[in-house]
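Cross-check.
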Amino acid sequence: MINQGLYYMSWLLAHRDAFRALVRDRLGATAASHILWSAPRLICVAGDFTRYDAHAVREHRRSIDLVRYRYYGDDHIGLETVASVTGLSGTVKRSCRRAARQRGVRQQGGALAELAEAVQAVDEALLGVGTGVTRVQRKQYVAYQRLCDSACAIPPRQTKLLVYLKANPKTVDLIPGFTRNVTGLGHHGTGNLEVQLRTERDLVRAQDLFRLSYAAA
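Predicted model, tokenized:
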């Protein structure tokens, strides 16, 4: 099921114009203009999954959710996430690879390349987290807005990038050196969850926090 789903995802990404035309015909031009391709996600829904399925999703470098359904009587259905893996979006991958080539080094979860390239990768990730996100340049930071600021990226300082998110820090397992509760602490931008990005791996694991903040905005 997973491999079949990945096949259809690959086919869809290879035929974007056809899919966009289908959406335009069914839902209108406005809906078609809101399609984002930067971070595709595969959601597999089934009555049950094996432990091999859960293992398989971690072998693919794609964003995949396994969702199990249960019927409750004749009128209710429950959905449960069995496994969820966040892959790095294609645009972010390209940015990181491009940065690595420019420096002539190979990146395998090591330090992000030139900070200018890292800023671009974070920018693409935050813009691609969901529909309706816009970038607003402020004097001291860049805001990413949905209905309100969902994320604020601070200009790089030395070896790290700081992103402040709308997500509630109390709902997140804080990791020293990666995430921090800055409620009541002064900083540029809005948001009480600070995310520190130093490596490509940090950017990968920040994807779920970006989505959480997007949902909260």
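Strands lie at 41-46, 63-72, 76-85, 134-137, 142-145, 149-157, 160-165, 179-181, 193-197. The chain is about 40% helix and 25% strand. Passed to J.P. for a second look.
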